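pipeline stage [seq->struct] | target=RNA polymerase sigma-70 factor (ECF subfamily) | organism=Kribbella caucasensis | residues=329
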Amino acid sequence: MTADLITRARAGDGDAFRELIEPYRRELQVHCYRMLGSFQDAEDTLQDVLLTAWQGLDGFEGRASLRTWLYRIATNRCLNARRTASRRPAKEWDVPKVVPPEPTRYGEVVWLEPFPDALLENVIGPETRYERTESISLAFVTALQVLPPRQLAVLVLRDVLGFHANEVAGMLDSTVDSVNSALKRARAGVQHVRSVDPEPPPSSEEEDAIVARFVRAYESADLDALIALLTDDVFISMPPMPFEYEGRDIASRFFANIFDAGRRFDLVPTRANGQPAFGAYLRSTPTGGTRHGVGLFVLTLTSDRIRALTRFENSVFPSFGLPRSLPSR
């Protein structure tokens, strides 16, 4: 069947080509996302990958599998994109009437965007050294972005996707020794993101309980209840704004400034990067009114608390099927 589709696609049959690559489209999109850290950049690069595959199908000799050939194209297109992309610049603080505390530090990866869980369904991969959710988590994807590009590529191809060292060497026009050396350095570079206290399983009773407590606390602006949910070393970030806060004390000051400014929210649940997430809608009046979407929160959990909260802009809403605003209640 595959040979027939290849023959037809080489003859210019676009439907045959689409049928040929459809089983790999979604996993290639996830691969591009891990490589680039940006959902939009991944979408754009995937289209470039598919066009390159379509135009270069005559060069597929069958010595490797079609999947391996596609990953070779995708990886090299992503490496090119990382070299040439004009990443989103850092953004100034723009929350009206809220003066943020001095940040713990300023983050580097301001182009980070979340990946909708709805697009992860039926994406199958070995994830040889990582659990499925860990391999797409915000912490892992962020750590990947600060690796040198070839180390990033080697780590994802070897430890997440399970390709052999000789296959990766072929994809990168490198040697097995070079691949193994890059993998060793890359593993050291991301080791810090592996938690000794794993997250509760997705949609489990444990996760649901933490999430419900967060929603109650945030929607009611109950600062004490919110802070009680955070770990001592909780981490707050908000790309493309570079502000990063670490620790419960400064988190308390951060959220106090938001609530003291009279900002009240309704949260709409979704999921991103294998983690619970919420569209945050700012109430126009204390009792309701039209509610305007202002950002997307993604929570990183421990067994019973929240260890990280990442806030993204409302420009990501369309990828999650979230409306720009909610009607009056």
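stage status: PASS
auto-comment: The mean pLDDT is 92. Residues 1-83 form a domain with the Rna Polymerase Sigma Factor; Chain: A fold (CATH 1.10.1740.10).
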